[in-house]
UniProtKB/TrEMBL annotation:
Top-level taxonomic group: Bacteria
Cellular component per GO, a single term: plasma membrane
Origin species: Neoroseomonas lacus
PROSITE patterns attached to this UniProt entry: ABC_TRANSPORTER_2
Keywords of the record: ATP-binding, Nucleotide-binding, Transport
Protein's UniProt keywords contain ATP-binding: yes
The protein's name in its UniProt record: ABC transporter ATP-binding protein
Length: 271
């Protein structure tokens, strides 16, 4: 395993649902300060793996370590408090709340009792604490370029903007590791380019390590430092993007390419 340089380690993780094996003996490490992507065909176990990391699922076998600590038995809220944030493949915003309030929800683990009392009666430290949280949220709003919708009701926004608000809520806790489950899904080209830029800036400027699931291979190749490929719950490849993309097992499993056969006349054919 990666030892002191790893922010996250999955150690021989297996996951079963009754007689169905979703993950089989998967091990990998996300290095501190890198963008690590998981790819694979539909049903390969990608989201199951991220759910094991976030605490939504508990592995049947194996361990999850965050910054050297075994977090396998911890619930999602405890992992979030330690510094693991996440977004979801399907939007999980509070549609009736404003963008600002949705992002404030993301800071719930940082809000002390003084803040909660201050919601009823603003005095002393409670007022100061809320102002500090508001400043942090405004910084995120500026970073993600959503100033123009900060007071809008989240449910009225376009799909691309709602995805951006969900990212804002996930980073509101200032996690050291953020889990992104298909952040580009359903976006047009311009929205994807913006989201990719934000992810790179989170990694390079905010110092967040990133574990990402994404189907858009162009994005994965452009911004990932390393990639792991799953197929039927098993790891079939891991490494830098160019090496993984050239792996014949990956090309067969993920890209659907057949083995090349050469006829006697020297012309290639596929089977």
């Amino acid at each position: 395993m990666a030892g002191d340089t790893a922010v996250l380690e999955a150690d021989a993780v297996s996951l079963r649902f009754g007689g169905v094996r979703a993950l089989s003996d998967v091990s990998f490490a996300v290095q501190r300060g890198e963008i690590f992507s998981i790819i694979g065909p539909n049903g390969a176990g990608k989201t199951s793996m991220v759910n094991c990391v976030s605490g939504r699922y508990r592995p049947t076998e194996g361990r999850i370590l965050f910054e050297g600590q075994d977090v396998t038995p911890l619930r999602p809220n405890r992992r979030a408090a330690l510094g693991i944030g996440r977004t979801f493949q399907n939007l999980a915003l509070f549609g009736h709340m404003s963008v600002l309030d949705n992002i404030m929800v993301g800071r719930h683990n940082l809000l002390g009792a003084g803040f909660l009392r201050g919601m009823v009666y603003w005095i002393g430290g409670a007022q100061k604490e809320e102002l500090n949280h508001r400043r942090e949220v405004e910084e995120i709003i500026d970073f993600l370029e959503i100033q123009h919708v900060r007071k809008a009701t989240a449910g009225t926004l376009s799909y691309g903007l709602r995805k951006r608000v969900e990212l804002a809520r996930a980073i509101a806790l200032k996690p050291r590791l953020i889990l992104l489950d298909e952040p580009m899904a359903g976006m047009n080209l311009e929205e994807k380019e913006d989201m990719a830029r934000f992810i790179v800036d989170l990694n390079e400027e905010w110092g967040m390590s990133v574990l990402m699931i994404e189907h858009d291979m162009g994005v994965v190749m452009d911004i990932s430092h390393r990639i792991m490929v799953l197929d039927f719950g098993r790891k079939i490849a891991e490494g830098v993007p160019d090496a993984v993309l050239a792996d014949p097992d990956v090309r067969r499993a993920y890209l659907g390419e057949a083995d090349e056969v050469v006829h006697e006349d020297g012309e290639p054919a596929t089977t």
